[in-house]
Design goal:
The protein has 202 residues and is of the alpha/beta class. The chain has one domain: HUPs (Rossmann fold), CATH 3.40.50.620. The chain contains ten helices and six strands; from the N terminus they run E-H-E-H-E-H-H-E-H-H-E-H-E-H-H-H. The chain has a six-stranded parallel sheet with strand order 3-2-1-4-5-6, sandwiched between helices. The chain is globular, with a radius of gyration of 17 Å. It binds adenosine-5'-triphosphate and magnesium ion (MG). Adenosine-5'-triphosphate binds next to helix 1, strand 4, helix 5 and helix 8.
């Protein structure tokens, strides 16, 4: 049987416990052998300014996943640069590793947005999707177009109402981010002064 590899794409600005718990649950729900955290270089749908550089976002992911043998870093989108389109990523991964089966993990807030992904039918031909429900974003498989229903599996996630946006805002307001990110990530953020005075920062 092919090794099943979960792909957890995101800006990870910064990576937080919501991402880590989601990846851990995805291993169980999707029968995955590993999950790769894959920072996007520049997500097509995100126009807001980013606090961390691609390098900083990658380093924070490395710090967050270092003690889990099933978690890996996937730099294919960072290495490629430019706008990160899933269709290119899926094609490149399938070509590089034909012996793997790729399962794209999407948060509950992203599942209904799948039909709008660039060339989604080509993406769905190469990978399947595992949708993890997220607080505030109820999803049913019937809400998806028929061509996606057989390619998407939904799984429940415990309610962890934490987001990178919230963490960046807490930093701007001088509030604690303890426990919503791992300790090494918290130290990295505080040592570098990330997300504080974000407007003047870069
Ligand atoms: P931002 O607030 O900047 O949008 P985010 O917290 O949503 O950041 P992303 O890097 O955009 O994090 O998300 C990467 C993936 O992780 C997406 O599929 C997203 O839906 C999922 N995700 C993010 N936060 C959670 C959470 N608390 N629980 C489950 N999934 C999550
Ligand atoms: Mg998001």
């Amino acid at each position: 049987m092919k090794r099943r590899v979960g792909l957890m794409g995101g800006t990870f600005d910064p990576v937080h416990v919501g991402h880590l718990v989601a990846a851990e649950r995805a291993i169980e729900a999707g029968g995955l052998d590993e999950v790769r955290f894959m920072p996007t270089f520049r997500p097509p749908h995100k126009s807001s300014r980013l606090g961390g550089t691609p390098e900083e976002r990658r380093e924070m992911v490395e710090l967050a996943i270092q003690d889990n043998p099933r978690f890996r870093l996937e730099t294919i989108e960072l290495d490629r640069g430019g706008v990160s389109y899933a269709v290119e990523t899926a094609a490149a991964l399938s070509a590089r590793e034909p012996d793997r089966e790729f399962v794209w993990i999407v948060g509950g807030d992203m599942v209904l947005y799948l039909p709008q992904w660039h060339r989604i039918e080509d993406v769905a031909a190469q990978v399947t999707f595992l949708g993890l429900t997220r607080p505030g974003y109820p999803v049913a498989i019937e809400q998806l177009p028929p061509y996606l229903r057989t390619r998407v599996t939904l799984a429940d996630m415990p309610a962890l109402d934490v987001s990178s946006t919230d963490i960046r805002e807490r930093r701007e307001r001088g509030l604690s981010i303890r426990y919503v990110v791992t300790e090494p990530v918290r130290r990295y953020i505080e040592e570098r002064g990330l997300y504080v005075h974000a407007d003047e920062h870069r």
